[in-house]
Write a structure and sequence with these properties.
The complex is a heterodimer of chains A (87) and B (606). Chain A has 3 helices and no strands. Chain A is mainly α and 87 residues long. Chain A has a single domain (3-82), classed as Non-ribosomal Peptide Synthetase Peptidyl Carrier Protein, Chain A (Orthogonal Bundle), CATH 1.10.1200. Chain B is globular and about 75 Å long. The chains are: A mainly alpha (87), B alpha/beta (606).
Chain lengths: 87, 606
């Protein structure tokens, strides 16, 4: 999967689950999603949706604020998981 | 109209607590065991589960909402071993109680991890039907979601989350690998057993018929939905769960559409004929408190106080009482069990040591009904009628203090509250004073907002028309409920980080200058309330975070010091930014402070 395609998919998932007051269109890839209004439970919903969409599982080490801070950080985490061997 | 009653039932040495909703004539088509979520989700879902119970009873179906062993008001403590087995046994006991009470058709209905637990015992319980409301697909998925929530909660407060729960903190001996979630701690063995639970992992159908409601985006894929476990399962959407469980700053609405869907589905699947259903139980129970939690024998009774039937559970010592009682009031819209069940743990510990303790719901919250004309589920409701303007919570506490004083507390009552509960405790004890039966008050995490008209709490002023305050986070309430009460301040450090001149001045203005500002503005600082408490013979314990302590001392540092020196005020500052005590570290520290305060307040305590 190319990085652009991944980014589009991640933005769509964030748009659906982040419950951003101003919507996803005003949020840049490196903007802080928490500052944009994303709450903790939305981050959990995004995690679940990402795992379902990409068939990955975030390890404990990635279950933190930084992983879901921005579109870019999410893409980086997913890219890393897609490139990792299973198990 | 259908009714509800609370009862203790099940094994006498480990009594379970439940709320039973019954049709008006006590004749029901079926019985439902309602299995609540755990931790913070249990707190957030209380109103919705109560609404489901009421709706089922109105539809001719009995509903028994059980507190699992070691949760809510049931016997047990979270650090005992074999927690999962105990929770499952609780569900089985509830199902058996319904059958023994006459229910010929028994269903299990659970939300979140409660649904996962219900599914795990559905076959053993012989459930005729099963409802999975926003289920956790597996115990592992639940723990992972909670792990992320916990990390975010810690990090947003500038704290470093512990990598694991302290050994032994969640039961299962001293094995490392326990898991702390918001509002609960699970031992290593329990966490491992939870991880092995899977709704779709069963090799046989979960029940003869089942309904599974998933949040949008969380429905399992075709492979899981096609598993043998999911045979006979109808799948639909759980609407409104993100609002019910996911909002941080305001209560979400009860998901009425989902409740209607569940009731309709159960009504369709249950037999048409009715039978008399009555679950055997009692409004009182006696049990032994483990030595690790104080030791001794305690009697607990369901109490309804005053003309409006304020709900509370009174924990009584078996040994002669000290003459001093404690009263815990609920926090915000959470119930009488307190932050992560802390009120239950302390009530039983203190009762075992000779102090009677009531844990209660203010009117319109938890299990206490609203007064006629008063809105339900409002955190700061007014008294209806000619007394409009007076906050109902003050009257509620006054009624309970009077009742305790008459029955078990000749030496007075110590009133304890957190957040909105602290606000109500402060206001009520200012009215009552020592002459009215208050011996002390413990105020935990009350926001000392500098712009709030604190003079409204002074005795004699509380009946003035209430000034509308800025919207308070967490006081969404019904649309027609007036908003009042102390607004939650934006954390001062966040305000001042803006770097404006005003913020700089505020940060560096010396205390005497603040005293002058307050005088010029005619502003009553919150410390003045503590001085008033002292004049009325009440000793106060204030537990708060550093920013709140700074606000309390602003312009009043010398007055606060005098109160402390005289022993009329004890001010304890928490190092944790954990308003609702969702972390075990904050809970443990507050528990220790309350323990010590109670020891000083109740002489003769064993």
């Amino acid at each position: 999967m190319g990085s652009d395609e991944l980014r589009v998919q991640v933005r769509a998932i964030v748009a659906q689950h982040a419950r951003l007051p101003a919507g996803i269109d005003v949020v840049g890839d490196d903007d802080d999603l928490y500052d944009a209004g994303m709450g903790s439970h939305s981050a959990v919903s995004i995690m679940i949706a990402l795992e379902g969409a990409f068939d990955v599982e975030f390890p404990d080490a990635l279950l933190n604020k930084g992983t879901f801070r921005s579109i870019s950080s999410i893409c980086a985490a997913v890219t890393g998981l897609l490139g990792s061997p299973p198990g | 109209m259908a009714g509800a009653r609370e009862l203790f039932f099940g094994p006498p040495e480990r009594p379970l607590f439940a709320r039973l909703h019954v049709p008006q004539d006590a004749r029901a088509r079926a019985g439902v065991v309602l299995c609540p979520p755990f931790g913070l989700e249990r707190q957030d879902s209380g109103r919705a589960l109560r609404a489901l119970g009421e709706a089922l009873a109105s539809a001719g179906i009995c509903c028994l909402q059980v507190d699992y062993d070691g949760t809510g008001d049931s016997y047990g403590w979270s650090d005992e071993p074999d927690r999962l087995g105990a929770w499952q046994a609780s569900v089985l006991a509830a199902a058996e109680a319904l059958r023994a009470g006459g229910a010929g058709y028994v269903c299990l209905a659970g939300m979140r991890l409660g649904a996962t637990i219900a599914a795990s015992v559905s076959a053993e319980a012989g459930a005729d039907a099963l409802v999975l409301w926003d289920p956790c697909e597996s115990g592992r998925s639940y723990l992972r979601e909670q792990s992320l929530l916990r990390s975010l909660y810690y990090e947003q407060r500038g704290l470093v989350p512990p990598t694991a729960a302290p050994p032994g903190s969640g039961g299962d001996g001293d094995a490392a690998g326990g898991v702390e979630v918001l509002g609960a701690t699970y031992g290593a063995v329990t966490a491992r057993q939870l991880s092995e639970l899977s709704i779709t992992g069963s090799a046989s159908p979960l029940a003869p018929r089942a309904l599974a409601l998933y949040r949008p985006g969380r429905r399992p894929g075709p492979e899981r939905l096609g598993s043998p476990a999911m045979a006979n399962v109808e799948v639909d959407d759980a609407v409104g769960q993100d609002d019910l469980l996911g909002l941080k700053d305001a209560k979400g609405p009860v998901p009425a559409a989902t409740i209607d869907l569940i009731v309709s589905w159960l009504a369709r699947s249950a037999p048409a004929e009715r039978s008399t259903v009555d679950v055997a139980g009692s409004t009182c129970t006696t049990f032994d408190v483990p030595a690790a939690h104080g030791g001794g024998k305690v009697k607990e009774e369901v109490r309804r106080t005053g003309p409006n039937g304020l709900f509370g559970i009174l924990s009584l010592p078996s040994s002669p009482a000290t003459g001093v009682a404690a009263l815990f009031v609920n926090m915000g819209d959470a119930d009488h069990t307190g932050p992560s069940r802390l009120w239950v743990v302390l009530a039983r510990k203190w009762a075992a040591a000779g102090v009677p303790v009531m844990r209660a719901d203010l009117s319109g919250l938890g299990d206490s009904p609203p007064r006629a004309g008063q809105p339900a589920d409002a955190i700061y409701p007014r008294l209806p009628g000619p007394e409009g303007g007076q906050l109902a919570g003050f009257s509620d506490i006054a009624e309970m203090v009077r009742a305790l004083r008459e029955e078990v507390a000749g030496e007075g009552v110590v009133v304890i509250g957190l957040c909105a509960g602290a606000y109500h405790s402060l206001g009520a004890t200012l009215d009552l004073g020592a002459a009215g039966g208050v011996r002390g008050v413990a105020i935990v995490n009350l926001g000392f907002h500098p712009r709030y008209p604190w003079e409204l709490l002074l005795p004699g002023r509380a009946r003035l028309p209430v000034v509308e305050a800025p919207p308070h986070r967490g006081v969404a309430g019904p649309p027609d409920a007036p908003r009042s009460g102390p607004p939650a301040p934006a954390p001062p450090d966040r305000r001042e980080a803006r770097g404006s001149l005003k913020a700089l001045v505020k940060r560096h203005l010396p205390g005497p200058a603040w005293w002058l500002v307050n005088r010029v503005r005619g502003f009553t600082p919150p410390a003045a309330l503590l001085a008033c408490l002292s004049r009325r013979g009440v000793r106060a314990l204030v537990i708060c975070e550093q920013p709140e302590a700074d606000l309390l001392r602003r312009g009043q540092a010398s007055a606060v010091r005098r109160l402390q020196k005289d022993g009329r005020l004890r001010l304890e500052v928490l190092p944790y930014k954990d308003h609702a005590l969702l972390t075990s570290a904050a809970r443990d520290q507050v528990a220790a402070l309350l323990d010590d305060y109670m020891e000083c307040s109740a002489p003769g305590r064993t």
